[in-house]
Amino acid sequence: MITRQLGTTGPTVSALGLGAMGMSDFYGPADRGESIATIHAAMEAGVTLIDTGDFYGIGHNELLIREALQGKPRDKMVISVKFGALRDPAGGWNGYDASPAAMKNALAHSLNRLGTDHIDIYRPARLDPKVPIEETIGAMAEMVKAGYVRHIGLSEVGADTIRRAHAVHPISDLQIEYSLISRNPEHEILPTLRELGIGVTAYGVLSRGLISGHWSKTRDAAPDFRSHSPRFQGGNLDANLALVEKLRQVAARKGVTVAQIAIAWVAAQGTDIVPLVGARKRDRLAEALGALDLTLTPADLAEIEAAVPKGAAAGDRYNAQGMVMLDSERR
């Protein structure tokens, strides 16, 4: 397995990480046995980074990871956890809290659910507009000093917030959506990260399955959160799937799948970037891992750019309410 370091101060991890969210939430029912088998298959393939959030399945995801890692060497896995989103018993959303007290409470519960004495990378899932980022990171730095957290990460924040957070404590990496059709980080965020020596864990590299090559128009009414996503609706879906067909032609000429070329494109944007793949099944994981064997030449990259030009995506990546929550999208 190829490895990459997350920034100048972060851990060294596999060049591909596993995002576990879909095993517990947002994409409809998942098979518990297959989910655990997929985590095991990832580990056997050399994947060392697994990403979760304490609000994925309202704790279910952390408990699933605990079960999957039972009996495995703890120091072989880098566990990344997001916190801050508030849920209610019905699964609804009750806002966001990244205050120091809330963070310490969330951390205590995550440590218990995961059955571990430390979390490798701990990060607020979003910027809390009620709490200065300096207060959140300062309290997290206390948890690093106490040994409960090894590294501090960020998620979906903009350049100014990144600088303010990094001034309080070194940041290992920013988790942000980055794909062929989600390229806003290139404007200001990626240059800022590279200036400061902060890595990237890129999620949504297949845009929630939209550019995986496996999505079709007949699935646009999927009974999960994608049914509310602008990119999966009406004419936007048609336009985006047309882009996928152009990408499919490029992939066919390389003898690979659409998903593999999309993942390889993200990985080719810099050795400081680690793509996260949300595989819920072993066959999808195997396909994603195949992207690591794909080398894209400058000619390949130019051909991909021509097929899916920057800014070509139709629709925002979240609905209006979700976009408001993204500090990373503020201009």
UniProtKB/TrEMBL annotation:
Instruction: Cite the NADP-dependent oxidoreductase domain residue spans from the record.
Output: 16-307
Q: Does the keyword Acetylation apply?
A: no
Pfam families on file: Aldo_ket_red
The cross-references to InterPro entries, in alphabetical order and at most eight, read: Aldo-Keto_reductase, NAD(P)_OxRdtase_dom_sf, NADP_OxRdtase_dom
Top-level taxon of the source organism: Bacteria
Which keywords are on file for this protein? Oxidoreductase
Does this UniProt record's set of keywords contain Oxidoreductase?
yes
The record, for PANTHER family, names: AFLATOXIN B1 ALDEHYDE REDUCTASE (PTHR43625), ALDO-KETO REDUCTASE YAKC [NADP(+)] (PTHR43625:SF40)
What is this protein identified as? Aldo/keto reductase
